[in-house]
Amino acid sequence: MAKKHEEVMELAKRRGFIWPSFEIYGGVAGFYDFGPLGSLLKNKIIQKWREFYVVREGFFEIDSPSIVPEEVLRASGHVDHFVDAMVECQKCGSAFRVVDLVLEQTGKGIEGMPKEEMDRFVKEHKARCPDCGGELGKIFDFNAMFRTAIGPGSQRVGYLRPETAQGIFIDFKRLQRYARGKLPFGVVQIGKGYRNEISPRQGIIRLREFTMAEAEVFFDPEDPRHPRFSEMAREQLRLWRAGDQIKGKEQLTEVTAEQAVERKVVCNELMAYYLALTNRFLLDLGIPSEVIRFREQTPEQRAHYSSETWDAEVSTERFGWVEVAGLAYRTDYDLSRHAQFSKEDMTIFSADKKRKVLCHVMEPSYGIDRPLYCLLEHSYVSEKRKYLRLKKELAPIEVGVFPLLNRDGMPEKAREVYESLRLKGFMAEYDDAGSIGRRYARADEIGVPYCVTTDHETLKQNDVTIRHRDTMKQIRVGIEKLPDVIKKLLNDEIEFDKAGKPIETTSK
Ligand SMILES: [Zn+2]
């Protein structure tokens, strides 16, 4: 079981995608480093996200601090609501999330139950410490934010931000002036978020520090439309509605974005539009449609600020369905709270200038680390040979350059080709270790789409072979044309067979 996960993580560690953090000190659960290839891949995923939200949607990007003073998070509700009900063992001192413990020992879900009832429930069902069987104490609240002090001493309490969104809400007045009062308008922020998970056991899936990409779309509640909805109207969505989950039905509702609005499966057009855009983003990363679904959170599962939330989930071998993005209808919760706590007027004029409006917010919020893992798992092909079928635009290394043999001037020529590709802006890698077969295998397993080889012919004719990762077909191309051909291949502007002279291959 979970063989693929083991193989993918082994590859990820060995080749420099993902490493456990603080490894030489024994590591700390919930933290991972991205190695050289992981950092490249992560940046490419972020780049793609920017193409969707900043370039295509025209949203403004900001960058605000990840340490936030307490009053902001009191206003946002995180000081009071970003909590888990915990219970401590009287005998061994281990602490557990009550909801998890009860589910494990009784099979009952008690998410959203008030604390007093939980206390009674735990007593009635005689729940015990799963570690030592000891008696459990009273239920208490644990806030999942990392707390710190701003400045020396402890006069001013701060927290590491649990979401990037608050930085956007705080700047709302400046941002709406920047948008010249136009509605709807969107603002994004990409950066680290923090959550002091109680006992993260799911590796890269449950991190205490993670990268998020969030968009806050401000709109007039009387006009929850998207100006370009027609572009997404036909997008097919696979939805698992809250009502069906409560009834225990696994069945998905398959509708287009347009039907989702008409049949009132979702609250409004903006929600349908961003569900569709999220779906398209995940497909564009290379995640297959059959492993993507949107799960509506039940009222007990929803965050305190949301009136409707859909989680984009990707099915994985080891972790089951993994939430990779959340689409929350935050209403005017955040702006009204900040207006109340800061005493600033957060209203603006409606489009017709006749009304004062407190904007509502639709929030597409993505993790970056989880989709990266899902992408590795779903790109990993383990057949006769192992390779990562990453999309070309996401491959950390775009082109590998090898000499066929380590003699007769072939390595020197290969180095020259490698250097010139680097200077032309390609992420190229040079490799002359081991046999040519081993070099191809090493390039394949990190998803290098094209490999260039210099051989005896190169020295006579000044040309090289290019090998295609997925088909292993080879073509012959003149060195002077190489950068142009590689560029066209990477941009899908030319078919591989037509990019050069096809050659018969005998080697694997
Ligand atoms: Zn115990």
Structure commentary:
By secondary structure, the chain is α+β, with helices and mostly antiparallel strands. It folds into three domains: 3-77 and 147-378, Bira Bifunctional Protein, Domain 2 (BirA Bifunctional Protein, domain 2, 2-Layer Sandwich); 83-143, Herpes Virus-1 (2-Layer Sandwich); 389-503, Anticodon-binding domain (Rossmann fold), CATH 3.40.50.800. The chain has 17 helices and 27 strands. The strands form seven sheets. A nine-stranded mixed beta sheet has the order 3-10-11-19-16-15-14-12-13. Strands 23-22-24-25-26-27 form a six-stranded mixed beta sheet, sandwiched between helices. It has a three-stranded antiparallel beta sheet with strand order 4-9-8. A hairpin with a 5-residue loop joins strand 25 (463-468) and strand 26. The longest helix has 21 residues, at 36-56. The chain is globular and about 80 Å long. Residues 89, 91-92, 94, 129, 131-132, 134 line the site of zinc ion.
